[in-house]
Amino acid sequence: MKQTLLELMRMNRICRMVLATCLGSFILVIFYFQSMFQPVMRRNTFVAEGCCGKGSRNALEELYNSTQTEFTAAALLHQARRDRVSAACRAHSASSRQRRVLTPGDLRHLLVDETHRLIYCYVPKVACTNWKRVMMVLSGNGKKYTDPMQILSFEAHVPGNLRSLSQYSIGEINRRLKGYLKFLFVREPFERLVSAYRNKFTQRYNTSFHRRFGTKIVRRYRQNATEEAMRLGADVTFREFAAYVTDPATQREGLNEHWQTVHSLCHPCLIHYDVVGKYETLEEDAATVLRLANAEDVRFPAYAKSTRTTDQMAAVFLRNVSVQQQQQLYQLYKMDFLMFNYSTPSYLKLD
């Protein structure tokens, strides 16, 4: 009996030791991930880390320590935009940094160009097709394409054509986040939202979106919907789309990337972006990135201004939804408005 009791006590000590070891390892993993990402956000000046050949300068050095006067104005502009993002993150830390550890899934939108040491976080409906084309030319180093417009739009979105940061090991991710120039492009949130609606729900060729989302939206939010409408999902109204986007059930399911918020796609409170480009100044900001990367021979594609969604168009669509939906939409995209210095639209009824 005594021997059995001693054996049980010994087994109990072993179990406690194993549990303590597992718990300690788990805590170390958490601290490792936090230390991996947080210093990146705090860093304000570039420190060379042996990434370049002797006498060469990469995009980060050109931005932070440039000797060329042509970069001075751009450096000041992007410093102001970075400061704006940081201030918004600090002011809204409870909502913007609830999850302090990034996972590989969070890095799927960050595309890597090893040749020019660039990391681009793509945001749908903010010239991302053209930026992917440019990244394919840059990362391919002219082996297959030299002109971005040689690349068909559907080909630019094939996952295997560009490497995502999520495909690297933890150490490689950390090294690239510290040593590569990181940039993203943003857009007035409601212009982007309306652009996504127009493209995905009013164009006949987007049958995949009609079937995947349109049928669900019609079934949920349209009273007395016809069998054809529920089967095809091809005539979703903006009011129904707004109801879907703001529905808590949709939030739990996860928003599609075309109308997901920028801060949720690119995590600017956890990843320090060196260049925050804007759709409104697309040509100038794109030229700045290419100059910094010493890739001025690559021309950023022009876009059709006649078909783009404007602020006036967004106002028409938003005015046609209820005051409650306006308020819900603004709350959903509020952090994007604040981070990227977009004024609250005058047509909204938020009181």
Structural features, described:
The chain has a five-stranded mixed sheet, with helices on both faces. It is built from 16 helices and five strands. With 351 residues, it is mainly α. 54% of the residues lie in helices and 6% in strands. It starts with a helix and ends in a 12-residue tail after the last helix. The longest helix is centred in the first third of the chain and has 41 residues, at 2-42.
Radius of gyration (CA) equals 24 Å
Order of helices and strands: HHHHEEHHEHEHHHHHHEHHH
Which word captures the global form?
A: globular
Low-confidence stretches: 23-56
Q: Helical amount among residues, as a percent range?
A: 40-55%
Number of strands: 5
The structure class reads mainly alpha
What order do the strands of the largest sheet run in, or round the barrel if closed? 3-1-2-4-5
Q: State the distance separating the first and last CA atoms.
A: 76 Å
Strand content range: 5-15%
Biggest sheet architecture: 5 strands, mixed
Helix count from the secondary structure assignment: 16
Mean pLDDT: 84
